Amino acid sequence: MKIADIDFGPRPLFLAPMEDVTDVGFRMLCKRFGAAMVYTEFVSAEAIIRNIRSTLSKMIINEEERPVGVQIYGRDIDSMVEAARMVEEVHPDVIDLNFGCPVKKVAGKGAGAGMLRNIPLMLNITREVVKAVRTPVTVKTRLGWDQDHLIITDLAEQLQDCGIAALTIHGRTRSQMYTGEADWSLIGDVKANPRMRIPVIGNGDITTPEEAREAFDRYGVDAVMVGRATFGRPWIFREMRRFLDGEPQDETLTLDRKIDILIEQLRINVARIDEYRGILHTRRHLAASPIFKGVPDFRQTRIAMLRASTMEELISILEECRVRLNESTPAQ
């Protein structure tokens, strides 16, 4: 599978762009464990143009994480074009246009999934950004605004005609937000359309290696994008990759090693930013990691993780979890 000149090999797995989640430390770990493509947190076109420091920091790329995409969102043609040109200066491998974010503060203002209510503007933005930059431009969007407006089949062709290099489809409407189940049948319909020439990437509810394989085998997508299932679990890409390739699972991914990986993620983020913000970037991963489900009365431990204010304190909590897990599941 290729996006422009970037060859990802067969059935690649991508890390979804997620606000306050896909910072550079987490992206590098996901890349290490087999993510074929990673994306930055989405960034506001207006904030890029205004040189907001916190926004520009989200666009910092480490060479080890390539290929990497920078995702931008906005609701104005000129600002999206100018932002795309500025993003191109940091040399991402792709520039992704977010027409899928459902949250009120974005979609409610007409950006993100809000564009699904103004298709002419969405197409104009896409067309003008493609013309303005040399970097491949891709789009991520949803099935439609709601169940009465499932427009993705026609929209996919229209976006392709704008010159994008690939299309990612989240199998929900904006109205669904993140509730209910993703509808992969419509993603499959887009992929099966003989007029579609660009890669189609499927996204939504991929949480296991088996689900990843079904997405490829049943719906024919060119790549699968994994989102919330990666929280506190960057090694999920290795689990999925080995399953897709018919290889045995990595026996070195023991409970102890997984905890070591999470501690490494914490150390990377603290070293990259500072202790306070590095902890903020990491602890939601720790609190969501499935490996801690076996910790007795984990609710209290989770609260302690979310309240920890120093790296030493957070590592101490993780080491306590390691002991308690090994005591309760000695065979793991």
Describe the structure.
The chain starts with a strand and ends with a helix. Strand 1 and strand 2 form a beta hairpin. Helix 7 crosses helix 8 (184-192), helix 11 runs antiparallel to helix 12 (275-288) and helix 11 (255-272) packs antiparallel against helix 14. Helices cover 45% and strands 13% of the residues. By secondary structure, the chain is α/β, with parallel strands linked by helices. Strands 3, 4, 5, 6, 7, 8, 9, 10 and 11 form a 9-stranded parallel β-sheet that branches. The chain has a two-stranded antiparallel sheet with strand order 1-2.
Task: Summarize, please.
With 332 residues, the chain is α/β, with parallel strands linked by helices. It has helices at 24-32, 45-49, 53-57, 77-88, 104-107, 119-132, 152-161, 184-192, 209-219, 236-244, 255-272, 275-288, 298-307, 311-328; strands spanning 2-3, 6-7, 13-15, 38-39, 43-44, 68-73, 94-99, 137-142, 166-170, 200-203, 223-226. Helix 4 (77-88) packs parallel to helix 6 (119-132), helix 7 (152-161) packs across helix 8 (184-192) and helix 12 runs antiparallel to helix 13 (298-307).
Write the layout of secondary structure elements.
Elements: E1 2-3, E2 6-7, E3 13-15, H1 24-32, E4 38-39, E5 43-44, H2 45-49, H3 53-57, E6 68-73, H4 77-88, E7 94-99, H5 104-107, H6 119-132, E8 137-142, H7 152-161, E9 166-170, H8 184-192, E10 200-203, H9 209-219, E11 223-226, H10 236-244, H11 255-272, H12 275-288, H13 298-307, H14 311-328
Parallel strand pairs: 3-11, 4-6, 5-6, 6-7, 7-8, 8-9, 9-10, 10-11
Antiparallel strand pairs: 1-2
Helix pairs in contact: 1-11, 4-6, 6-7, 7-8, 9-10, 11-12, 11-14, 12-13
